[in-house]
Design a protein that fits this description.
Length: 383
């Protein structure tokens, strides 16, 4: 007899493939880079990368070289770009494993030194800051960066294959800063091409850019949140965008008991029952990655949602079953499955938890801790 994991996130790889195919349709003729940084936003980098490639994504994107190495070690040979480095990054390992490197400025010298040591050219994508103000080469220094990169290319230590940038406000489609970013990006590409750079790919769009701004697509779009089936837009659901949330977070109710009116619940006794009711104990807390501040968020049991009451602790939280009608009967929900969030069909969503915690759905799925077991299903395949 096998038992389900007591705390489990289930990832539906069919949903990942569906979302990738949908975004490929939207982005075409631009191609799709599946962004699988941060363990694929908590969904598991290797299985998600494989599913995305199966569905037609042609590139993979990660923040760190170490994340790219993990994909190569799993036997994935698709093009990979890693874009966030420090002076402690292992550029040699990246070049050896055929990982493309994002370069905003200072990295160039380090990448070249590593390439020289290996006697093998590095493939780089030069990043221009078109307004986000994080990484990326300032526009005034762009010309110089291109010049230096071309010199190294002539020496055989480098191949400049891409130019890219990142959008700041594409999740708010009415804002005109995106127009400015697209215009600056066009100019940066033109400067590179005028200097003789022969680009394979120009890329700017993230998920919100891909879905709301066709003029941001260029040759390649880098999609994260949409692939996981979540909406980047406030006030637009996954379903409205044609996306299916891939992750469902489940557990098993650990206790269920009747309490009188005035019963305090959890640390600080910040909640007291207004009337006699039944409480159920959910054995999941901030140690599992649910935000401690999310009191009031819904948990569903048998297709019905109940609010989390009182403080969320490290290991547990409590839902108030006022509405079940089991109080005063012999019925109990002990041992029943509870869904913390899922695809929204009879379950709460990551959006509900984002709202209750003042955060965004990206954070809700990404922060699920290693204490929660990941498992994979494929709803396209009959069980
Ligand atoms: C994370 C990231 C993306 C993906 O963004 P989504 O909004 O999740 O689609 C794209 N590009 C870069 C540079 C990123 O860091």
């Amino acid at each position: 007899m096998s038992f389900p994991a007591e705390r489990r996130v289930e990832i539906d790889l069919a949903a990942i493939r569906h979302n990738v195919r949908h975004i490929i349709d939207v982005a075409s003729p631009a191609r799709v880079m599946a962004v699988v940084k941060a363990d694929a936003y908590g969904h598991g980098a290797v299985p998600v990368a494989k599913a995305a490639l199966e569905a037609g994504a042609v590139w993979l994107g990660v923040a760190h070289i170490s994340e790219a190495i993990e994909l190569r070690k799993a036997g994935i040979d698709a093009p990979i770009l890693a874009w966030l480095h420090t002076k402690d990054s292992d550029f040699s390992a990246a070049i050896e494993l055929g990982v493309d490197l994002g370069v905003s400025g200072w990295e160039l010298a380090h990448v070249v030194a590593a390439a020289r040591g290996l006697e093998r050219p590095a493939r780089v994508h030069l990043k221009v800051d078109t307004g986000l103000g994080r990484n990326g080469c300032p526009p005034e220094q762009w010309d110089g960066l291109i010049g230096r990169a071309l010199e190294q290319q002539e020496d055989g230590l480098l191949r400049v294959v891409g130019v890219f940038s990142h959008l700041a406000v594409a999740d708010e489609p009415h804002r005109d800063e995106t127009d400015e970013q697209i215009e600056r990006f066009r100019e940066a590409v033109a400067v590179a091409e005028d200097q003789g750079v022969d680009l394979e790919v120009r890329h700017l769009a993230n998920t919100p850019g891909t879905l709301s701004r066709p003029d941001s697509h260029f040759d390649l779009v880098r999609i994260g949140i949409g692939m996981y089936g979540l909406s980047p837009f406030e006030g637009q659901t996954s379903a409205e965008l044609g996306l299916r949330p891939a992750m469902t977070f489940r557990t098993t109710i650990a206790n269920c008991k009747e309490v009188p009116a005035g019963q305090g619940v959890s640390y600080g006794l910040a909640y007291r029952t207004g009337e006699a009711t039944t409480l159920a104990l959910i054995p999941v807390g901030y140690g599992d990655g649910v935000p401690r501040v999310a009191t009031g968020a819904p948990v569903s049991v048998n297709g019905r949602s109940y609010p989390v009451v009182g403080r969320i602790a490290m290991d547990q939280m409590v839902i108030d079953l006022k509405a079940t009608g089991i109080a005063g009967t012999d019925k109990t929900l002990l041992g029943c499955e509870a869904v913390i969030f899922g695809d929204g069909n009879g379950t709460p969503t990551a959006d509900d938890w984002a709202q209750a915690s003042g955060s965004i759905n990206y954070e809700i799925v990404t922060r699920i801790s290693p204490r929660v077991v990941r498992s994979y299903v494929d709803s396209d395949v009959a069980p």
